[in-house]
Amino acid sequence: MESAKQIWETALGELQIQVSKANYTTWLKNSQGISYQENVFVVGVPSAFVAEWLTKSLHSLVSKTLAQIIGGDVDVQFTVHNQNQLTNGSLAYANQPDGGISTKAKIDRFNPKYTFANFIVGDCNRLAYAATIEVAENPGHSYNPLFIYSSTGQGKTHLLHAIGHRAISNGLKVAYTSAEQFTNEFVLAIKQGQVEDFRARLRTVHIFLFDDIQFISDK
């Protein structure tokens, strides 16, 4: 019999043509077959949020697809399993001057109201909401980089701050800046011959949050 990994790869090929590209990329692409014993098929996913969404939204379709491949009824279970997931270490967080890019951002740098719990999810922003949660929980994997684009007032900054809140609460190191702040500091680094120091400072973080990045597109 094929391994759980091989069976799931076959299932993914079938599921890819049954769901939208956005749903496949967001919810299924980074999953893997973990085990298949006594009619129980375990699928590993990057986060609890993904596991919950798949259980509520695609469980029936996934079960049907696997049953057709295996040739019998199957009980599908989604569980968090990510070998590449960053380990939450004990990072030292210190106050940074307001004028500099904070590579040890504290939660108080972000609007306390801009959290995932307070974000109103609708059809127009559901994918962006799911993608930002993935970035906050598993930086550098599914979406790297992630660009959020919309008209004014649709919640881009809210989601950016929500990433910061979630990532810091998970013990990750976050840098947050605006286009103006980044440009000013980069120009200063050039003048002072400290470009490498500037780059090195940002390379130490798990997540780099850049607000209004479009303003430096022509610079």
TrEMBL record:
Entry GO terms, CC: plasma membrane
Swiss-Prot/TrEMBL GO biological process terms: DNA replication initiation
GO MF annotations in UniProt: DNA replication origin binding
Domain Chromosomal replication initiator protein DnaA ATPAse: from-to ranges: 111-219
A Pfam family the protein falls into: Bac_DnaA
Ranges of residues in domain DnaA N-terminal: 6-66
InterPro entries in the record: Chromosome_initiator_DnaA-like, DnaA_dom, DnaA_N_dom, DnaA_N_sf, P-loop_NTPase
CDD domains for this protein: AAA (cd00009)
Annotated PANTHER family: CHROMOSOMAL REPLICATION INITIATOR PROTEIN DNAA
Name of this chain's protein: Chromosomal replication initiator protein DnaA domain-containing protein
Organism for this UniProt entry: marine sediment metagenome
